[in-house]
Structure formats: C-alpha cells, structure tokens
Amino acid sequence: MDMNIPVNPTTKTGAAEKPASAIGHNSSDLDVWLRKVEGIGELKRIAAEVDPDLETSTISCLVGSEKSPALLFENVKGHPGHRVLYNMIGCNLSRFCLMIGEEPVEHPLQAVQILQQKLGNKIPPVEVSGAGAVCNQNIWEGDQIDIRKFPAQRMWPLDGGKYLGTGDAVITRDPESGRVNVGTYRMMIKGPREIGVYTSPGKDAGLDRDKYWKAGKPMPIAAAYGIDPLLFLVAATSLPKTESEYDYYGGINGSPIEVFTSDLTGLPLPARAEIILEGFLYPDETFAEGPFGEFTGYYGRPSGATPYMRVERVRFRNNPTLTCALMADGPANEAGLFWAMLRSAGIWADLQKLGVPGVKGVWSIPEAAGWGITVVSIEQMYAGHAPQVMALAAQCTAGAYFGKYVIVVDDDIDPTNVHQVLWAMATRSRPSQSIDILRETWSTYLDPSLNPPELRPWGSKALINACMDYKYIKSFSKRTKLSKEAYDKVVARWSELGLEGKPPVMTVFEDGAFPERL
Questions:
Q1: pTM of the entire structure?
Q2: Of 121, 150, 247, 431, which has the fewest Cβ atoms less than 10 A away?
Q3: What is the pLDDT of residues 440-459, one digit of tens each?
Q4: Which CATH superfamily is domain 20-331 in?
C-alpha cells in the first residue's frame, strides 16, 4: 500500500492554492526533532518488519523505562513507505528538555520551573502559504480517500479497533468566540472515510462541537499526525479554555508555529505536520467506539456512542511518519512524564498568578498517570497557608481535571521524591484533621474507579496537609539531619572509600543550610 500516489494536478491545497506539483519538499518539524534526538544518541531505528497490530505497542511497552530511547519503526507490515514513532518522550528527562528547547537539567523541578516561566510568553501562530506546506505534497479528496492506508495501531488486545489518532493534534474552533483549540483525542477508524473523535466531558473540542450541533450545523475539524512532540505536549494537557494552544506552543518554542488556512474547513493547519485529515462532525452521527487502553492503565469507556469525522480531504507528505502515544501504567506510559511536567508547571504558574507566596516546587507524579497526584512544596508563612494552597492547587485551571489527591509538604521535602513525600505524610499529617474532601469535581469517563458508569464524569479530590502544624512549627519535633561538614567530607572521599556510583545529593543539613534546589 505505497502512499506515494500522485494526486490530481488540479487538487486544491488550501491558502495560496497551487497544483500539487508546485509544492515544496521541505522538512517537517518532526524531521528536525528526530535529527536532534538521534544526535544525542536517544533514537532507536528498527529496520526489521513489525506488525502494527499489537507488535509495535508491545515492543514499546517492554522497552519503556527512564532510559529508553524513542522508537522509530521503519518497516511496518502492510504499509511500505511508512514509519511509526513511539516513545517520543517516555520517562526521559533529557528528551523532555530537548522538546521545550532547553539543555538537559539534573532535577525535574528545574525543567518544571523553566516550563512554568515559558507558559507566560505566548506567541501567536504565523500564517504561511499552503503551497510550501510539507503536508501538501500529496492530497486526496473524494473517492481517493482511504485512511486505512496509514498504519493505524491496535495497541492492546481488547481495543475496539485500529487507532490512527493517539499522538495527535486535533484542531477545532469555538463558533462564538473564534478561539482555536488544539487538543489530543483518541481516534478509532470507522471506515475508509470515517474516523471517531472521542472527547471526555468538559474538553474543549466537545464544547465546540456542542455549540455547532445546538445550532444544527456540522463542526469543521482537522487532525494532524506526524507532529512536533511539542505540539503534542500542548495539545494533550489542560490550558485555559479561552486561549489557543498554538500560542502556548510559540511561547515554549520561542518562535511561532507556522499555519495555513484551509479553504475546506477554514481552520488554521500546522504547515509542518506530516499527515492531516480534514472534515466535519455532523449532528448526532455517532458509532460504537472503543474500548481503548487508556492513560490510567485500564480500558476506558467500553464501546460508547462517539461522534465521528466524515473525512473530506487528506494531506500527507511522501513517506510519512505516524506519531503514536502508548497509554499504559508505569514507565511505558508515553504521556506520564510530560503530563506531569506541564500539569506541574501550569499549577505553579496559576498559584503565582493568584499571588500565593512561598511555593518552592510543584510535582504531579508521573507514576500516578501524570494526573492523579500532585505534590506542592511550600515555605509556610502564615496561618492557613497550607490549606489555601491545597484548595487552589486542586481547582485552578491546570489542576481541576481528574486529579484525585493534592498533597502539600514543607519546603524541606523534595516533591519529586516519593519517599520523602510519604515520610512527610506519615510523620506530619493527622488523618482526623489533615484531610479534606472536595466532592462533585471535574473528572472523566475514563476513571475506572467511578462505578456505576452513570456516576461519571463527577469525581472527588482528597486534600492532604502533610506540613508541620503551623501553630506549633517552632516547637515541632526536630528531624534528624546530616552535618554539612561531614557530608562534604564523605563525598570528597567517596572513591577512596571504595563506594560505587555517585553519592546521594542531600539538600537539608543540621546547620540549617539549604542549598538552592533549582
């Protein structure tokens, strides 16, 4: 099923329309990123033939770890000329830094703080001619369209079908405000010209769709694959509903994303994506989509009625790469680390905007599906400070969706260190007084704990104060700490003592010295 099929020379290509033969063959954003990743030795090319039905995902799942490389499958069974990319970021901190345009850092909170600062520097997209867009090298319309020719994946044995959309960016527009949304939604193939678009309740594309359908109109929609991992990052997280993820992409990237306006849907499309589907969601047209192995590590929402796109145009480069995001438990979860990073940075930024002082670090634990548990480290400064931080972190824009536990700890606790966090909970909290519950909060149908299913998407949140009691903070039992002088002496003699590896990094000492954590 070679995709290098010539298109009709009269086929339209969007803004500044020209024949397909006039379209340039420039690099995609993904090309640029892959070259950088390969340059730091973190890309694994797999030349052996692999099956998109369970085999690629199984390989990615088994390889997944903190040190696992990005996996580029170059010989996909039944799809010659196609490539498939898994594990774009995984649990790898250095690739995350590369994605946001930074040099590698030693500590996750350093990356969170950098990202938190970049979230305040929004840069809107720049309009370019569609004639030079890499995705316009080939264009299908009408009977030419068969999206099954792309190497859609079945990732888990009980998945309801093949999914083209996992590591995607889906573009919609609010018909009232004109705000352009870029989101990540799972997309199961229904037929050669039809593909599902599952949106969890409250997500922006679903809200946009409901407004079109209420007016009796189909919703224009586009889905991009083979995308810059940074575009996947901003698309796959919760950002303010009144703002466009394109602007946040530009701010993090340091330069605007290039887009061109489609004459079919009127949507601004990423010019350097490798594959784009365009079409419409028609009122009340649904099909039985799913189940799908989700980010929680469980199958999500078995076979529910889901809207689907009627695909009217397909744009793709020669020899395209499909970006895939495996959802799983543990380190194999493609999105665990970057969801943790962006959620942490977003909550930190929201607390800063709200004028909350004393925040020393925010961390959303990757092992808790990137969303489930958030830890905030604070320097307590006044009565009620910790409860204030708990409530705001739980319900601010970046923290409201799905998260179940918010834990606040003192600033001598590293929020990224689960061992320290659990120690603080065990020694500083009092269950009868330190835990509050928020009820009927924003959740998702994908939460397997909410039963029966009709309870969804209502959730709840536990707020856990694992700080020293502020009323008695000056007389609270002193924790045991190493001497800074003795620590430095031992570190200097580490090799002499015959000890292997690097000595642990300590941040808290008996003399009260607190080296800068960031």
A1: 0.84
A2: 431
A3: 998 887 888 877 766 667 88
A4: Electron Transport, Fmn-binding Protein; Chain A (2.30.110.10)
